[in-house]
Design brief:
- By secondary structure, the chain is mostly helical.
- Strands 1-2 form a two-stranded antiparallel sheet.
- The model has no long low-confidence stretch (mean pLDDT 88).
- Helix 3 crosses helix 18.
- It is globular, with a radius of gyration of 22 Å.
- The chain has a domain of 201 residues.
Length: 510
């Protein structure tokens, strides 16, 4: 079975999601255990795939053939479906596996039966399958297919609570943006297919000539994926989406955003890596700065705790864009600071997933015991929920980049690399972090400090387990970041920075 681990990581949650309604008819406990078991299996699967890739190199899995060479016809290019897992793909899989371990146990306890629990769990597994597919596929059209799977599942999770007034509106807004995003990406594929007659990413990358058609396709890819990752000025769907989905499932929405970022990196570095000029890098940097600034400013006036955290999550996308954008600018010259910034941006993907995930779980816990997320109606919860208050404080400090937590470890690398390109970039990023720290300090004071208030529920141990998993990750990555940077982050960054030739050789030979 280990030989088929890459495809099983996709197939198990996909098939398991369709089985959830059937198992719910047998018994709810069976359904819940099934969902948690699948999350554990997927986490183990992505861990195994990552261990193999980090130790042995790129893993090419061909559906219906043993080697990539068996897939070629007389034209000399691959015709079968391929999964191509390099260190960056494996890194993205690890993020999905870790968040799944925290999200599904929390969801099993958090979502009430009368609020469509079976539907939410099934959609969550489908979303997880789509995320794994996007991370592992080596085919542009299959990437689009999995992109659409994640879009459909995500919109379902956002809007399935139709008895509320805001959830359907948020789902419609997200569906509209996702549809446009997918259409733009599909048009980009159509341009390249018309030009080169193939869909395999490695083959097209080897054939790119830098023509006008190639540039149009790049513009379509950039437009579609930047929209999907909630980069400003097309970020407005994300606060609604994050705010209306069940708190436990918001973790998967965060990973869905990040795997779209992964797709952006894959297009820019692997597909177009040999044909990009510095202007594309500066575009990514500019959108990163705009995203972090707009989101931090918008967070100031929020009175809904979920939306406040959502804007904090959007702001962190800006830091990832900044770090990897610096790497793009310096890709041709291979300046060492570009690789440092890229490592910071990629490391921040993992750190952000843990930090934002923990914040949303805290939001869910607050809503569970108070029935509201309105900051004007909250206060004094630190007396009854000391563990939740500690987790919220820990995640808030990490999000703002306060040492010695994980957010500081990745941001300092972004600051170092961007400072050597332009000190202004670092100054703006630091100011955005300071502003975000002030916003979350106000939120912590408004929710957890003050006189004791009455609560209507109790925190279940499963809540604390899920929050504990992420809290431990935040502290460990902050206290000993060097080990993770060297063993996990650096190979992922190198796979983009210098690994294009290896990626192409793994598929095409030579």
């Amino acid at each position: 079975m280990s030989v088929h681990a890459p495809i099983l990581v996709i197939a198990i949650p996909l098939l398991g999601g369709f089985a959830v309604p059937i198992l719910a008819r047998i018994h709810r406990t069976v359904r819940d255990l099934w969902v948690v078991l699948i999350a554990c299996v997927v986490a183990a699967g992505v861990g195994y795939v990552a261990a193999q890739v980090f130790s042995q190199g790129i893993w090419v899995y061909v559906l219906g053939a043993k080697t990539p060479q068996e897939t070629r016809v007389s034209a000399g290019f691959p015709i079968r479906i391929m999964l191509t897992v390099d260190a960056m793909s494996a890194f993205m899989g690890l993020i999905a596996g870790i968040l799944a371990l925290a999200a599904f146990p929390f969801a099993v306890r958090f979502i009430p039966e009368e609020e469509g629990k079976t539907l939410a769990l099934a959609l969550g597994l489908l979303l997880l399958a789509g995320i794994a597919g996007m991370a592992y596929t080596g085919d542009l059209f299959n990437f689009f297919v999995f992109l659409e799977v994640t879009s459909i599942a995500a919109c379902g999770l956002i809007g399935f609570r139709t008895w509320t007034s805001r959830a359907p509106e948020a789902a419609f807004k997200t569906m509209l943006l996702y549809s446009v995003s997918g259409l733009l990406f599909l048009l980009g594929i159509a341009f390249l297919y018309g030009e080169y007659g193939a869909l395999n990413l490695a083959y097209i990358s080897a054939q790119l000539r830098g023509s006008m058609v190639d540039r149009i396709a790049l513009a379509l890819f950039l437009s579609g994926l930047l929209m999907k990752v909630a980069a400003a000025p097309v970020h407005f769907w994300a606060p609604d989406a994050y705010g209306e989905a069940p708190a436990a499932k918001t973790l998967l929405l965060v990973v869905n955003t990040q795997v779209s970022l992964y797709g952006l990196w894959r297009i820019l570095f692997t597909l177009y890596g040999g044909k990009l000029d510095a202007g594309v890098g500066w575009l990514v940097i500019s959108m990163g700065l705009l995203t972090m600034a707009v989101a931090a400013l918008m967070a100031i006036g929020q009175t809904d705790l979920g939306r406040l955290v959502a804007y904090g999550a959007v702001s962190q996308i800006g830091y990832m864009l900044l770090g990897v954008g610096v790497g793009l600018v310096s890709l041709t010259s291979r300046a060492d600071y570009g690789l440092v910034a890229m490592k910071g941006g990629i490391f921040h993907m993992l750190n952000d997933a843990l930090t934002v995930g923990l914040l949303f779980l805290c939001v869910g816990a607050v809503e569970w015991v108070k029935g509201t997320r309105d900051l004007r109606e909250l206060g004094g919860l630190g007396h009854q929920l000391p563990a939740v208050a500690l987790c919220f404080l820990l995640a808030s400090l990490a999000l703002a980049g306060i040492p010695p937590l994980n957010g500081f470890a990745s941001k300092i690398m972004i600051y170092e690399g961007s400072f050597r390109l332009s000190p202004i970039l670092t100054a703006l990023a630091v100011l955005a972090s300071i502003l975000l720290l002030a916003v979350f300090a106000r939120a912590f004071q408004g929710v957890f400090l003050g006189p004791r208030t009455e609560i209507t529920g109790r925190i279940h141990w499963v809540f604390l387990f899920s929050m504990g998993v992420l809290a431990v990750g935040i502290m460990v990555l902050g206290l000993v970041p060097g080990f993770f940077v060297e063993q996990v982050v650096a190979p992922a960054a190198e796979a983009l920075w210098r690994g294009r030739a290896l990626y192409l050789a793994a598929i095409l030979g030579g």
